[in-house]
Structure formats: structure tokens, C-alpha cells
Amino acid sequence: MFHKAKKLATHVLPGVVRPIHILWNQVIGFIFLALATVFGFRVFRGHEPVGMQLAGGAFVLLMAWFGISAFWRARKISKS
């Protein structure tokens, strides 16, 4: 009985886990890109000193990079 349950799990789980993993990466990518967009508008719209704008710009670039790389990972998972 346990052997058949294990065999079923080895066939079913990869088919379920893979789409969830892809969706997770896409959701995380969207969140990071949304954060980069919102903070990008707030940083460059305001009248902060140049140092604060540079720090904010670095934060925006970092969030954008995380978002793009999450979408790349999702695509890589879907191709394999």
C-alpha cells in the first residue's frame, strides 16, 4: 500500500510543484518591480538632497534587478 502511495506521489508531485514554483517566481518578480516603480517615482519626484536620491536610485535598481531575475528564473524553470 505504501509503495503505491509513494509511486503516485513521485508522479503527481512534480506536476504540481513545478507550476507553483513558476507562479511563485512570477509573483515575487511582480512585487519587486512594483516596489521599484513606486519608489522610483517617489525618489525622483521629491526634493531630497543628491545623496538621498543616489541611495534611493540604488535601491530602485536593486529592486528592479531582483524583479527581472525572478522572471528569468520562472522562464528557466518553465523551459526545463
The share of residues in extended strands comes to under 5%
Average pLDDT value? 91
| Range of helix content | over 70%
Tell me the series of helices and strands, N- to C-terminal.
HH
| End-to-end Cα distance | 32 Å
Structural class: mainly alpha
Low-confidence stretches: none
Total count of domains: 1
Report on this model:
This protein has one domain. It has two helices and no strands. It is rod-shaped and about 70 Å long. The model has no long low-confidence stretch (mean pLDDT 91). With 80 residues, it is mainly α.
SSE diagram, text form:
Layout lengths: L1 H44 L4 H30 L1
Give a short synopsis of this structure:
With 80 residues, the protein is an all-alpha fold. 92% of the residues lie in helices and 0% in strands.
Name a few traits of the molecule.
80 residues, rod-shaped, mainly alpha, 0% strand, 2 helices
